[in-house]
Amino acid sequence: MPLSPSPRSANRPRVTLARGASPWLVPTVLTAVATTALARRNRAWAVAAVPASALSAGMLWFFRDPERTVGAGRVISPADGVVQSIDAWPDGRTRVAIFMSPLNVHVNRAPLAGNVTSVEHVAGGFVPAFNKDSDRNERVVWHFDTELGDIEMVQIAGAVARRIIPYLPAGSKVEQGERIGLIRFGSRVDTYLPEGVEPGVVVGQRTAAGVTRLDRD
Question: 70-113 pLDDT, tens per residue?
């Protein structure tokens, strides 16, 4: 007779691996497995097996993709991280910038439900994402047609993050909190709240993608 899961394990969110992780993860895990097998025959291989196994474990942690219960709010955070800045924009919008460290989940989610009207890759540099000049970094600019009108979201690569992987093309219908892309390693995500929508977060506040509300009633 199969055992029933304990209440603690039943309440624990299911964690999968992010789409787009395999080019980094597979070679790392295979190297760890191979060097560990060799180390069992010859202890000299432990010099390679130990760091390879540690790197493999780090990659598995970095590319984790936990299930989330979507939070309440008109606009929710597209990224795990810390609110780095909140800036009034000349056109009346408010930019909420969220810095993602290498320890955060790097799968980004749709801030609102709607239609993806454009997904534009913009070439640029790779300065650290917390630097003010990171606005000119490699980035992917999203536009969503939503109940609040056009919403812009920008995924920005950092000094280590050299690849942004969109999961959806233009023309896709998206639900609030749905996974829309991955940024490999430390980076930043900007959300532009439309005119008349006040931010409900403060600088320094931690956010969870798909959960934390960005706007205020």
Answer: 999 999 999 999 999 999 999 999 999 999 988 898 899 999 99
Counting Cα atoms < 13 Å in the Cβ hemisphere of 36 gives 13
Q: Cβ distance 197 to 146 under 8 Å? A: no
Q: Which amino acid is at 217?
A: D
CATH of 71-207, one of 3.80.10.10, 2.70.70.10, 1.20.58.2190, 3.20.20.150: 2.70.70.10
The confidence band for 163, taking pLDDT boundaries of 50, 70 and 90, is: confident
Does 77 participate in catalysis according to the annotation? no
Of 76-90, 97-111, 165-179, 196-210, which range is least confident?
A: 97-111
- Catalytic residue, chosen from 56, 77, 134, 187, is 187
Contacts of 11 (CB under 8 A, 6+ apart): none
Across the strands, what pairs with 206? 82
Beta carbons within 8 Å of 37's beta carbon, 6+ residues apart? none
Give the span between the Cα atoms of 199 and 117, in whole angstroms. Answer: 24
Tokens 């650290």 belong to residue: 128
**Are the CB atoms for 33 and 60 separated by under 8 Å?**
no
Domain boundaries, the chain: 7-65, 71-207
How far apart CA 81 and CA 1 sit, in angstroms, is 43
Q: How far apart are CA 176 and CA 170, in angstroms?
A: 16
- Specify whether the CB–CB gap between 152 and 94 falls below 8 A: no
